[in-house]
UniProtKB/TrEMBL annotation:
<dbReference type="InterPro" id="IPR000674">
    <property type="entry name" value="Ald_Oxase/Xan_DH_a/b"/>
</dbReference>
<dbReference type="InterPro" id="IPR037165">
    <property type="entry name" value="AldOxase/xan_DH_Mopterin-bd_sf"/>
</dbReference>
<feature type="region of interest" description="Disordered">
    <location>
        <begin position="522"/>
        <end position="544"/>
    </location>
</feature>
<dbReference type="InterPro" id="IPR036856">
    <property type="entry name" value="Ald_Oxase/Xan_DH_a/b_sf"/>
</dbReference>
<dbReference type="Pfam" id="PF01315">
    <property type="entry name" value="Ald_Xan_dh_C"/>
</dbReference>
<dbReference type="Pfam" id="PF02738">
    <property type="entry name" value="MoCoBD_1"/>
</dbReference>
<dbReference type="InterPro" id="IPR016208">
    <property type="entry name" value="Ald_Oxase/xanthine_DH-like"/>
</dbReference>
<keyword id="KW-0560">Oxidoreductase</keyword>
<feature type="domain" description="Aldehyde oxidase/xanthine dehydrogenase a/b hammerhead">
    <location>
        <begin position="22"/>
        <end position="126"/>
    </location>
</feature>
<keyword id="KW-0500">Molybdenum</keyword>
<dbReference type="InterPro" id="IPR046867">
    <property type="entry name" value="AldOxase/xan_DH_MoCoBD2"/>
</dbReference>
<protein>
    <submittedName>
        <fullName>Xanthine dehydrogenase family protein molybdopterin-binding subunit</fullName>
    </submittedName>
</protein>
<feature type="region of interest" description="Disordered">
    <location>
        <begin position="1"/>
        <end position="21"/>
    </location>
</feature>
<dbReference type="Pfam" id="PF20256">
    <property type="entry name" value="MoCoBD_2"/>
</dbReference>
<dbReference type="InterPro" id="IPR008274">
    <property type="entry name" value="AldOxase/xan_DH_MoCoBD1"/>
</dbReference>
């Protein structure tokens, strides 16, 4: 076989790269069907209550206004599983910013002006948006697999009390917003009983299925296209209100309707990372061996939907200890509904745990890398299952070597340049290796080319490219012979790009379809292909972790160097280095991009990103990219990402683990630990802005 066959593992360039950089790649809002109208939503201005009257006369009087939808006249929806999607169905206002009307007009400008002219009257009720650990309505949520609840091992509290070395600390992570570069947008056409939607989504099969249920339309009468998506970070993981509103408006007006959510509305209606209050207690022997680990996470959710930011999930699998208690508690408040944001649970949870581990290292007078090495394990502490592979120790050692950790003087304030205190810190990372069932088909054309069809979504990750590599590998053909079709719900249905599981799920099906097709072709060897070619289709059953005999997780280690300006209070990250063990890396070019992108997001979480729940108004104060500062180039040093190739036979045919999220896990702790090393001061609330530093 020719060399080009080994496409998997090569740094293939993104297939859609030229289309993106030349502006020919079209996103959801860049489709303008004939006769397209434009919608603009009207958010509620009270934090809790009911709409008592809608006066749309001024709006309707504007030339070019097609209509105003409210709970009084909007199409009725079948009760959604996700209460976030029950838009314009009743008068209730569960949180500020909840949509109470939608204006449709001939132009975007008219829609916007008319939305401002809609007068809504409310019966206002008192609201409560303040997250407290002692809130009387706090409870332990219970999901099906028990992740969001409480896990107990041994006598965690008694063992803590009796231990020789202890750390007991409370960490706070503020609300965080996904803010993908491309805002949520949908263009909907409802014609001849068929609904076609271009939606900015992480998974259009789910959008199609949800719209089918909401509007009671057969699935084969709906097509949802998500060809190019400008990021999502979880906020486009499941359908969001915009796509329901666009479809509703198209049905109600008989016109194609385009709806792009304004940036300032995104924090309220597309989900956010819930703030967390996290108390961590660690107890150890004097040699650093952990005796007891207690992690209590309190998060908020809305009144309409339970969502738990599962901050203690990673604590159950990282370090062994004979005693442990990990508890999730959620408080329903009059706040917008939180949802997934990159590494939901693990990102804030490992900030707290890995900060506490650093505090423990200080209490023990032990090197923090060494502390983690002394608490390594081959079996998952909570389930007792063996890890399918775990190379955390290798990541720690390799990271320490590359970073030059052995040069470090452990004393705080030991290094400075003028008014700038320099410090270094580190933290461990982990994220589960997940996969879901997917379908895919492979087709051989008589001209020698191949076509792969799977409704995967490329949210900027390089999914197209990697799936083509997987297919070429399974087929045993050069990469340039493989075409790939993704991003359309008419293709074989597939799970979302989320949970770092896209490549594993879709790739599994693509690999299986490619392998089956290659076998078919092998049997036909010597015969010409029929004019229509030869096909193979598969439906995989990705095994859920609960069904596996192995605990499957990726691991990593983050190292950071910071400079803390003692005059301005500004923290600058000078170096950031990550080493990961995430199975086989299928494409080093796109993988590196995933790792450093997530590390950058972790840098933002540590230093600049954070939102304030305004107690008086009951809404987030930071609603644009000026107030909510996502790291810009000037904030980001040369980030280095490396990996240790793992040969793990218990994952999927490619031997890969997910790589989209682990880069944000622990990064903020590494930076916070570096700030403590630089200054000698331990700060336990993110972000580490100058006002907190000084
Ligand atoms: Mo991600 S938060 O798994 O889309």
């Amino acid at each position: 076989m020719p060399d080009t066959v080994s496409a998997l593992g090569s740094p293939a360039e993104r297939r859609e790269g030229p289309a993106k950089v030349t502006g020919t790649a079209r996103y959801a809002a860049e489709h303008t069907p004939e006769g397209c109208a434009y919608a603009w939503p009207v958010p509620a201005t009270v934090a809790r209550g009911r709409v008592t009257a809608v006066d749309d006369s001024a709006a309707l009087a504007l030339p070019g206004v097609v209509g105003v939808l409210t709970h009084e006249n909007a199409p009725r929806l079948t009760d959604p599983d996700d209460a976030m999607l029950a838009v314009l169905q009743d008068a209730r206002v569960p949180h500020r910013g909840w949509y109470v009307a939608l204006v449709v007009a001939d132009t975007l400008e008219t829609a916007r002006e008319a939305a401002a002219a809609v007068r809504i009257s409310y019966a206002e009720e008192p609201h409560d948006v303040e997250l407290r650990t002692d809130h009387p309505e706090a409870y332990v949520p219970q999901d099906e697999d028990g992740t969001s609840g409480e896990h107990l091992r041994g006598e965690a509290d008694n063992a803590f009390a009796a231990a020789p070395v202890r750390v007991d600390a409370l960490y706070r992570v503020p609300p965080l917003h996904n803010h993908p570069m491309e805002p949520h947008a949908a263009t909907a056409v409802w014609q001849d009983g068929r609904l076609t939607v271009h939606d900015s989504s992480q998974g259009s099969s789910t959008v199609r299925d949800t719209l089918a249920a909401l509007f009671e339309l057969p699935k084969d009468r709906i097509t949802v296209v998500s060809e190019h998506v400008g990021g999502g970070f979880g906020s486009k993981g499941t359908p969001r209100p915009h796509v329901v509103l666009a479809a509703m408006a198209a049905r109600a007006t008989g016109r194609p309707v385009k709806l792009v959510l304004p940036r300032r509305q995104l924090p309220t209606v597309v989900g956010h990372r819930s703030p967390t209050l996290q108390r961590v207690r660690l107890a150890a022997e004097t040699d650093g061996t952990l005796i007891s680990v207690v992690h209590e996470v309190t998060a908020h959710t809305s009144r309409i939907k339970e969502f738990m930011e599962t901050g203690a999930a990673a604590t159950r699998i990282v370090y062994p200890s004979p005693h442990s208690r990990t508890t999730h508690r959620v408080v329903p408040l009059d706040v917008p509904t939180p949802s997934w944001m990159r590494a939901p649970g693990e990102a804030p949870g490992m900030y707290a745990l890995e900060s506490a581990m650093d505090e423990l290292a200080v209490a023990l007078d032990l090197d923090p890398v060494e502390l983690r090495l002394r608490n390594d394990t081959d079996t998952e502490p909570d389930s007792g299952k063996p890890f399918s592979s775990r190379h955390l120790a290798e990541c720690l050692r390799e990271g320490a070597r590359r970073f030059g950790w052995s040069e470090r003087d452990p004393r705080p304030r030991s290094h400075s340049e003028g008014a700038v205190l320099i410090g270094t810190g580190m933290a461990a990372a982990t994220y589960p290796a997940l996969a879901s069932p997917s379908r895919a088909s492979a087709h051989a054309h008589p001209d020698g080319s191949f076509e792969i069809r799977v409704n995967a979504t490329d949210i900027g990750t390089g999914a197209r490219t990697v799936l083509a590599q997987v297919a070429a590998d399974a087929l045993g053909v050069p990469l340039d012979r493989v075409r790939i079709e993704i991003g359309d719900s008419d293709l074989p249905s597939a799970p979302l790009a989320g949970g770092s599981s896209g490549t594993a799920s879709w790739g599994w099906a693509v690999h299986a379809a490619g392998t089956e097709l290659a076998e078919n072709l092998e049997q036909r060897r010597g015969q010409p292909l029929p004019p229509e070619g030869v096909s193979a289709s598969v439906d995989t059953k990705g095994t859920a972790d609960a069904d596996s005999d192995y605990s499957r997780h990726a691991f990593g280690a983050h190292f950071a160097e910071v400079g803390v300006d003692t005059v301005s209070g500004e923290v600058r990250v000078r170096r950031l280095l990550g080493v990961y063990a995430a199975g086989h890396i299928l494409n080093p070019r796109t993988a590196r991009s995933q790792f450093i992108g997530a590390m950058t997001m972790g840098l933002g979480m540590a230093l600049t990103e954070g939102s304030t729940m305004d107690a008086a108004f009951g809404d987030f104060a930071e609603c644009d990219l000026a107030a909510y500062h996502v790291p810009a180039h000037a904030d980001v040093p040369a980030i280095e990402a490396y990996w240790i190739d793992e040969d793990d036979p218990h994952l999927n045919p490619m031997g890969s683990k997910g790589i989209g999220e682990i880069g944000i896990v622990g990064t903020a702790a590494a930076i916070g630990n570096a700030v403590r090393h630089a200054t000698g001061v331990r700060l336990r609330e993110l972000p580490l802005t100058p006002d907190r530093i000084l």
